[in-house]
Amino acid sequence: MREVRVERYDAAEVEPRWQARWDELGTYRTDLTDTSRPTFYLLTMYPYPSGDLHIGHWSIKTPTDAIGRYRRMHGDNVFFPIGFDAFGLPAENAAIKAGVHPREWTLANIERMRRQLRSMGATFNWEAEVVTATPEYYRWNQWFFLKFLEAGLAYRAMAPVDWCPKDQTVLAREQVVGPDRVCERCGTQVVKRDLEQWFFRTTRYADEFLRYEGLQWPEPIRLMQTNWIGRSEGSEVVFRTAPDDHQPGGDELRVFTTRPDTLFGATFMVLAPEHPLVERLTAPDRRGDVERYRHEARRKSEIDRLSTEREKTGVPLGADAINPVNGEAIPIWIADYVLLSYGTGAIMAVPAHDERDFAFATQFGLPIRQVVAPVGHGGDDEADAAYIAHTPDEELVNSGDYTGLSAPEGARRITADLEREGRGKSAVTYRLRDWLISRQRAWGTPIPVVYCPTDGIVPLGEGDLPVVLPDDFEFKPTGGNALESHAAFVNATCPRCGGPARRETDTMDTFVDSSWYWWRYLSPHKDDGPVDRELEERWCPVDQYTGGAEHAVLHLLYSRFFSKALADLGLIHEREPFKRLFNQGQILGEDGERMSKSRGNVQDPDDLVSRYGADTVRLFLMFMKPWEQDAPWSSTGITGLSRFLNRVWTVTLDPHGQESGGREEDASRGGGDGGPSGSQALRALAHRTLKRVTDDYEGFHFNTMVARLIELTNALMRYRGTALAGSPDWEETIRLLLLMLAPAAPHITEELWSRRLTVAGEPWRSIHQEAWPAVDEALAAEETMELPVQVNGKLRDRVPMAVGLPRAEVEEIVRAREKVQAALGGQEPLRTVYVDGRLINFVVR
RNA sequence: GCGGAAGUGGUGGAACGGCAGACACGCAAGCCUUAGGAGCUUGUGCCCGCGAGGGCGUGAGGGUUCGAGUCCCUCCUUCCGCACCA
After folding, report:
1. According to the model, what pLDDT value does residue A474 have?
2. A630 CB-to-strand B distance under 7 Å
C-alpha cells in the first residue's frame, strides 16, 4: 500500500487560476471573419442587470456554455456573446429611492454581474458585449423607429390602452397577463385609458408569424404564438340600419362572423358599447339607459372582471338593422361581451348556434331560430342550448333558397352571393394587436420626434440622432416621467421650420432593445449602421437560442417582427431570427414560487461556488433535473457531484492508490480482475459511455450525460490499485473521461489535462481545444450479455451468454435452466417470442 | 370553458413497446482516520419469509399486445398559456 497521498482537489485555487489564464491567452475569443470552419451562433437570453446573478442564470447559462464547448470540440467556430438588457424600471425606482442616476445604478450592477458571470468559467465572447442603455446602442433603436415610420411600420394613434397605475406607464397587450389583467412586471391591475400612443405594426406580419418552416422550436411555444395571433377565417357581412323616427337609416354596420351559414338565424345584433355608431342610432327614449350602460361598461373594465361566468348584460338602442339575406329587421343592442377591439366591434347574434348569443337571448327573451340541423331533423325554435356540434351531415334549414345545402356549402354560397351584391366578403381577423411601444418612463430609448406648433408631429432626421438621455435627472418620489420636467430635454427645435418644439418624452418599450441585440453583437461598435450585413449573412440566423418559455409571446414574437421588418428594409438577409430554440426549465424558489426579490426566495450561487467550486455547481444544475423541466431549488444532493469530481481527481492523479476500507481481495473487486480481459472491458465501457454521452450532448440530456460519466468514474474507482491501473487501456479511459467531462466541468478537466501533459513530457495544450473523440463501435459492442427470460411475460431468470448466438441455440441454453423448467412446469410452450439479444418469452397458458 | 405539459421509491430523477427504479441524495451497517461539511465498502421500492424464494408495485379504471410506466379510450390531480375573440 502506498503512503504517498495526492493533494485534494482545491476548486478555490484551480478555478480562478484557469479563468485568468484563458483570459490572458484569449482561448475563447472568436474570429468572426474566420471562414475555414463552420460557424455556430450560440445565443442565450441576455440578463437584466438587477444587481445579483441568481441560480436561475446559472441554470440557463452554464449548460448553454457546455453546448458551445461541445460544438467547439467538433471544430465549429462558436460565437457565444453576452450583454445586458440595461434599460428598465428597477433602475428608475432605485433612482427615486437612493437618489442615484439610473445609469450609475445600472453600470454598477453590470460591473458586479460581470464578475459573477465570469465565475461560471463560461466561454462568453466579452469582446462582443452590448449594453443597451448606451447611446451607442439605443441610437439604433431610434434609427429603426425612423425607418419604420417611413415604411409604415410605425404610427401614432389614439386607442384605448392598458395603463399600469403603479409603474405609471402604458403597456403592450402582451404585457398584461392573467384573468385579472395585471401588469407583467409588477402585478398591479391595469386600467383602460384613451391615449394617443406609438405603435409598431406587428399585425402586418400576422400570417407570416404563423409559418414556422425551418424553425426547430418547441411545439408549445409555437402553439402559444399561434393562439396569440388567433387567426380566424370567416366573412364580413354588411347590415344596414333601418330608418325610423329618429334617424334616416342606411348606415353600414359591418359584422365579422365565422359562421356565414347561420345568417338566417340572426335574430338581433350586438355592438360593443364603445362602437362609434351607438350615439347616432340610439332612440331618444333609450338614451338614458344606453348612456348609463356605456358608463357602467367603461367602469367595469377598470375594476376586476374576475368572473367570466357572469351574467350577460346589455341594453337595446331602439333601432333596427336589416339582414341583407332576407330583409328582416332585427333589433340592435349594445353589450359588453362584444369587444370593440376585435373584428368590427359588432356581431350578428345567432342564439341558436352560439353559446354566448344563446345566453344573451335567453336572458332578454329574444327569439332563437335554428338554421342548421343534422339531416332530417328540421328546425327547432325551443332549443335549451345552442346547437354548435359539427356533424358531417348537417344541413341548412329555415334558410330560404339555401335550405338543404350542407353547412360548408351554404357558407360558401351565402358569402359569394353577398359579395356579388357588395354586401359582404370573405374575411380574416386576428387576435393579435399592433405593438404599443410608448412608455411614460425616463429610463429608456427616447422616441426621436418633436411636437411643433406649426408642423405637428415631426420625426427627427437621421443626422439628429442619437437623442441622448440627460445626465441630470430629477426623480420625484411621486413617480412620473422625469423627462417631462427636464426643460433642456423637452425644449427642442423643429427640424422642419426651425422654430421651438416640444420633444417627445415617452420612451420605447425595453422589448425594443431586446428585439435585435444578437445582430449588434456581431459588430457592437459599428457606427455607420446597426448591423454588419456581411457578418449577418455569415452568422445568422442564430443556430441555437436558449432561454425561458415565459417570453413565448413577448420577446420571441417581437424578435420575429424585427427580423421580418429589417429584412424588408434590406438590412438583413434572414426573415427568422432563431433557427433552433430551447426552453430550459425554471428554477423556482424553495417555496415552489417564481424566484423574485420581493418574495425573498432568491438563491445566490456565490455561496455554493465558494464552497464547492463552479464546476460542481455547473454539474449539479445539469444533473438535478432534465434541462427543460421546472423545479423548486434545493441544494440537497450537491455533495454527490462534489464527490464525483473528487473521484475524477483521484483516479486521474492517483491510479495506484487505495483507500483503506472494507475491501476484500483485489481480484474479486468490482467484476474486474485487473488482467487483460478486465482491461478490455474497461475500454469497452469507456466507448459505450462515449456513445451515450455524445447522444446526450446532442439532445441536451445533461442529467443522463452526467450520470454516465459518474458510472464510468465509479468503474475506474473499482479498478484503482489493481494491475490494470495505469495500463494503456486505463490511460485511454482516463483520457476519454476528461474529454467527455470538459464541456460540463471546464476547470478541473483543464487542470488534470495539463498535469497529464506535464507527466507525459508533452507541450501544454488546452483540453478545450481538443477534438471530440470518435466512438470505436467494434469495441463498444457488447460481447456477452444476460438474457432476460420470461414465461407468460413474467421475468423468471437471467441467463448469461455470448452475444449473437442463433435462436435455436439460445432456446436450448435457456430451456436447460432449472428456474426456467420450474416455471414452465413441464409444459411445452405454445409460442416462443425471441427478440434478438433483448429477451425471450415462453407462452404456455 | 379551450389549448398545452406532467403524475414512477423517503427525495431529485432513469428506462428504442422487452430486466421498472440507472445515477445521485438521504438512511443503515462496517472500515479507515490527521475526527472532517473528508474518504472507502456493503445494503436500501413495498409486503410475507431466518433463508432459498414468493407476491405486489409507475395517479384511477378499462382496452390493444406474447409482453404496457411507455400505445388507445374514460376519468382524477397538479402546473403553464388564453379569457365572452363572434
Report:
1. 84
2. yes
Residue-level pLDDT at A601: 82
Residue A114 and residue A83: Cα distance in Å, rounded? 9
User: Is cis: bond before A743, omega within 30 of 0?
Assistant: no
pTM, 2 dp: 0.93
Give me the percent of chain A exceeding a pLDDT of 90: 69
Our measurement of CA A659 to C1' B29, in angstroms, reads: 19
- C1’ B47 / CA A699, Å: 40
Q: Is the CB of A629 under 7 A from strand B?
A: yes
Whole-angstrom Cα distance, residue A394 to residue A372? 7
Please name which of A605, A445, A421, A580 lies closest in space to residue A512, comparing C-alpha atoms: A445
Highest average pLDDT, of A29-38, A586-595, A649-658, comes from A29-38
The pLDDT of residue A676 is: 55
Interhelix angle for A102-118 vs A89-98, to 10°?
Answer: 120
Rounded-to-integer distance, Cα A708 and Cα A711, Å: 5
Identity of the amino acid at A679? S
pLDDT in tens, A203-215: 999 999 999 999 9
- Winning range, highest mean pLDDT, from A294-298, A478-482, A566-570: A566-570
Query: pLDDT above 70 covers what percent of chain A?
Result: 95
Whether residue A536 is predicted with pLDDT greater than 80 in this model: the reply is yes
Sign, CA dihedral A713-A714-A720-A722, equals: negative
- Dist. CA A747–CA A616, nearest whole Å: 10
Q: Which residues in range 553-612 of chain A are in contact with strand B, contact meaning CB within 7 A of any of its atoms? A: 553, 611
Chain A window 395-434, residues with Cβ within 7 A of nucleic strand B: 429, 431
CA dihedral A148, A152, A153, A156 (to 10 degrees): 100
**Which of the nucleotides lies closest to A349 (Cα–C1')?**
B86
Asked whether residue A714's C-beta has any atom of DNA/RNA strand B within 7 A, the reply is yes
B strand bases under 7 Å from protein CB: 3-5, 11-16, 18-20, 22-26, 30-34, 37-42, 54-55, 66-68, 79-86
pLDDT tens digits, A84-123: 999 999 999 888 888 899 999 999 999 999 999 999 999 9
**Cα–Cα distance, A339 to A608 (Å, whole number):** 52
Distance CA A752, CA A737 (A): 11
Cα within 13 Å of Cα(A370), Cβ side: 18
Task: Name the nucleotide with the smallest C1'–CA separation from A660.
Answer: B32
